[in-house]
Design brief:
The protein has 382 residues and is α+β, with helices and mostly antiparallel strands. It has three domains: 111 residues, Acyl-CoA dehydrogenase/oxidase, N-terminal domain (Butyryl-Coa Dehydrogenase, subunit A, domain 1, Orthogonal Bundle), CATH 1.10.540.10; 110 residues, Beta Barrel (Butyryl-CoA Dehydrogenase, subunit A, domain 2), CATH 2.40.110; 149 residues, Butyryl-CoA Dehydrogenase, subunit A, domain 3 (Up-down Bundle). It is 50% helix and 15% strand. A four-stranded mixed beta sheet has the order 1-4-5-8. Strands 2-3-7-6 form a four-stranded antiparallel beta sheet, with no helix packed on it. β9 and β10 form a beta hairpin. The longest helix has 37 residues. Bound molecules: coenzyme a persulfide (COS).
Amino acid sequence: MIRDQETLNQLLAMIERFVRERLVPAEDRLAEDERVPEEIVEEMKQLGLFGLTIPEEYGGLGLTMEEEILVSIELGKTSPAFRSLIGTNNGIGSAAIVFNGTEEQKRKYLPKYASGEWLSCFCLTEPEAGSDAASLRTTAVRDGDHYILNGSKRFITNAPVAQTYNVMARTDSDNKGARGISSFIVERGTPGITLGSVDRKMGQAGSLTCDVMFDDCRVPAANIIGEEGEGFVTAMKVLDRGRLHISGVAVGLAERLIADALDYAMQRKQFGKPIAEQQLIQAMLADSRTEAYAARCMALETARKRDAGKNVTLESAACKLFCTEMVGRVADRAVQIHGGSGYMSEFAVERFYRDVRLLRLYEGTSQILQLVVARNMIRNSR
Ligand code: COS
């Protein structure tokens, strides 16, 4: 749903300009420094990018899902580590509070996320619990008006720079499954939290991840999000939305890669003419454009369905599966079109090829998404 086309057009034009004029020229620096430059973080705050999806009454822009997908496509047209910095505040780090938090929690945390004053992160994955998220082992034991958390979380995006952690932990030791899990807001500086060193990764330099350890960490009982036992279901709802957002990012990345590949193919001459005039190069360009177009349409269609209040668990999994696999193929072809140059770091496609690999892993691997689609097909037919 688009609430006001004119306002949205202005927002999209502003983001498109910010990406083109500020982020794209800073891509090499981001890759080298492995940090989003401080002045760019400040500009992101000024532009309201940390609060795109946070409801307006808590200081955000309150974008609908369709509007958010259009924005994520624009933000996808540069190094994904830029989007990753604002991604948790707009998505998996804040969504549980938006969906299921108390009014007090919303008033305390959401305005800080929306302004970028505080960063949030989503602590679900553990050393022994990744795809099988319901098997997580971190515990939260009630002690008076506190819960005591013990356990470790792994690969947590933005944890090195976050002020709050949305932690999924087991509150019912007798229930080893999904219904024994609750969701908490834990503030940085709470005694008992330790951060691991920043992870070294294949790509997305500048998107910071690390382990988060809880050792007798006392968290106020008021910081539980929703009721005890609701944490897993809330996390799944958060991921339904997050997977759709990642689909938009994949479309944006594909469109950038296609633009770079087309540009190169029109400049580069072999056999006496630009390689863009060679039919086998044209086939790669056409396949990429076709798949990216299909991905854009399905992400927007699913977003409209979600805005209309429909359940999109199946569709958002299908979108992330198709869109992220699609951008993997597009990145591979973009390197191929660049030939030997595509393997060289001076061309952005070399970096993007590594960056996009993550999209098929986080917020549900492609294989988990296949499972979600198939399970929902079976459930719906019963
Ligand atoms: N929306 C609402 N509720 C949902 C849901 C959704 N999308 N998905 C599952 N649930 C509910 C189920 O209805 C069930 O509720 P009941 O207890 O009332 O029956 C409960 O959650 C447990 O669901 P299920 O039995 O399907 O859980 P499983 O342990 O079989 O696991 C998968 C489900 C594999 C789909 C889940 O663990 C998953 O998504 N894994 C990947 C995790 C992931 O993306 N990790 C990345 C970390 S974030 S970067």
